């Protein structure tokens, strides 16, 4: 079996290869190469299914920063296998679909590099057992999602949507990171598995509740839960394959994954149940309610995704009650809710993936996805219609589609909430099934809208574009998903035994789940659930027929009081106030900036040194000063004074260079050849650079005013000089800690190099050097873009 | 701006190779003696500076068609990849190792992964410095 941590790296490595491959194989669509990657990972995950279903788990470890206990720790169990197969399986279909969706004129290497980056990081999220590893991959998915939404970056909407999603998910991610670090502080472990096995030893810790809330913030913002859901509809500016993949099937489920994964840790606290199921139900209701009023089909699907995510979230919340109740029959009931969550998660990926792809086809063939301009496509696109019908009716919860099975389970879970006996008020447990039913009613209505407004009625499409079925390859992926929808309904047992029950057992480690093995059946007799479904069909159809009147309900909601407005005005105000603050001190004069820097240096250094009494030194232990050193010092002093009185910039630069070269001479005197060498070369290059830059500066005008004695500047410069001298003298004398140089003296044995300086730079403290190189590179690119972009803008004018 | 300084150009033709050789020497000797990737990168950059001064940027561009941005990026990439590479071998991030082989002609020679790291540093330095100088000077 392929170790899972290598499977995570395969997409990343492939992404690196793409730029090199692309030039070689320009005739073939790049997608045909990319499709192999999820296929390879998918196949390499298959051998895990059987052992994991039998209760085995696998861990792999790769060292990362062992001195901080940070590793790349991967863990394979039911839940991660489920997600891994989902990511790669849907990944194959989406890549196949994208081959027909994106023409070769598009910037394909970018698209597929981002897609592979996403695939790898998403696999990393679900297989990481280490909190920090999980966090890093988590943010990588946010970044790749940002890049993919902004794929058509020339559109304003794309840029807006990309920025919005990034700001919201990354903010949540930061909260989550703080939560993770707090969790580490509480439990003294980064491994989720270890934390779960130690459950009970830390639940009364003071930080436990804040940790829970911070982590939930991350999960909710990623999974577009109310009120963070506002980013998802705007993310629909992305190409449809991306919407189908990231924003319905996989990435938005990362939050659900995290909540499910951490349920064993937090579920003993009842607040976890209230937050997860409450927010979930609210999201479910609000998402489905808002979806009905949408006119853009993709926006409609986005809100429906929001509501379905809320549904799964609320199921996990109810499922977490299994940790709270003691009665064994109640435990059985609530574990079924957790199982239903996992089941619906898979079902949602199938029907929503299919729907997105079909809507993409409609958009692609007709040129619009506005339902006011669509209609009558059933005769023109019969295959797309069939797939849309299957997907929608599955989402609405009708037989014979898989959505029916999980929706029945959802109803029964909500009906059983009252059996937990945790509520003080009578009305609260009744609310759960009522909200569930009302939200499902809305779901039913918008499913009808998708099917009937698009495919029936009058043909609105412009005369010159006659819609037809797309190329057969484009239909393959949604058709496979549609077959899965029907297939799961009739034969759920294979999926149940091998994937779903092991996944549920990851949410409930240590709880007996043998009752989940009873095969899922679609008929349970005339129980409340089936009557709820029948009620849905009747009321939903009636409401759909009276949709015109129902739309008036939305007028009750003021349009300018929404979370979108809050986000926009918040961002706007933030930018404005930031600009106001910045403009007070950014004068545009270099000398002002130097003044700030130097005053800061003097105040902080001198202040701290005087406060701690660090200025204590004697000159007795200093070695005698030789004649040569005197000469060099005199030269430096003269050069420094001459800079002040230089007549032109050129001579000032040369005097400055003289100073630098004298410092190099000092390094030679004090036997630091490496430093001397570096200083010499740096001085040469910077002098050249200075000359180059000064070419662009305006001539020295107003010499008379400049030469006046500027008292504040004089004080500042004397202060800086005094600070540096005093610091240097005190550093030489004060010995707060023992010298660490003895460690570096073993450089030859430890690093194999006799040059200590370089051993420190490239081996002992290589991390610093690495980051310095990266910073240097960023600075270089920064200069380049500043200079080049400035030039471009002037041309534009 | 065409410059035609014959003496400078003739001297440059010879001196540049001496500087290049010095840079390579310093790079290799950095392991046990003064030198190293950073310095050799800087020296390479200064050699390019000299070329740009003696001739003009256009001529040098034609003679040495290298995109220094790419050089800088690949340098930064090598440095980071060097860190990740050790993870793939099951060691800590940025772990370095060395070994000695006996080669014909050279005798016992030491090989260290630090060399790869230093190559990255040198490439990044030369790339960035030349990129900065070129972009500022082309802005005339």
Key structural traits:
heterodimer, A: 797 residues, mainly alpha, two-stranded antiparallel ribbon, elongated, B: 140 residues, 2 strands, 9% strand
Précis, in short:
Chain A has 33 helices and two strands. Chain A is mainly alpha-helical.
Question: Mind explaining what this structure looks like?
Answer:
- The complex is a heterodimer of chains A (797) and B (140).
- By secondary structure, chain A is mainly alpha-helical.
- Chain A contains 33 helices and two strands.
- Chain A has helices at residues 4-24, 31-34, 36-53, 78-101, 108-127, 131-149, 156-187, 192-197, 208-222, 231-234, 240-249, 254-266, 270-292, 297-319, 328-366, 382-396, 402-415, 427-455, 472-490, 493-507, 528-545, 547-550, 563-585, 590-612, 627-644, 649-669, 673-694, 703-706, 711-733, 741-744, 747-751, 756-764, 766-796; strands at residues 58-65, 70-76.
- Chain A has a two-stranded antiparallel ribbon.
- The mean pLDDT of chain A is 86.
- Chain B has 140 residues and is mostly helical.
- Helices cover 67% and strands 9% of the residues of chain B.
- Chain B is built from five helices and two strands; from the N terminus they run ααααββα.
- Chain B has helices at 6-29, 37-54, 57-63, 68-88, 114-137, and strands at 98-103, 107-112.
- Chain B has a two-stranded antiparallel ribbon.
- In chain B, α2 (37-54) runs parallel beside α5.
- The longest helix of chain B has 24 residues, at 6-29.
- Chain B starts with 5 loop residues before the first helix and ends with a helix.
- At the A-B interface, β1, α27, α32 and α33 of A face α2, α4 and α5 of B.
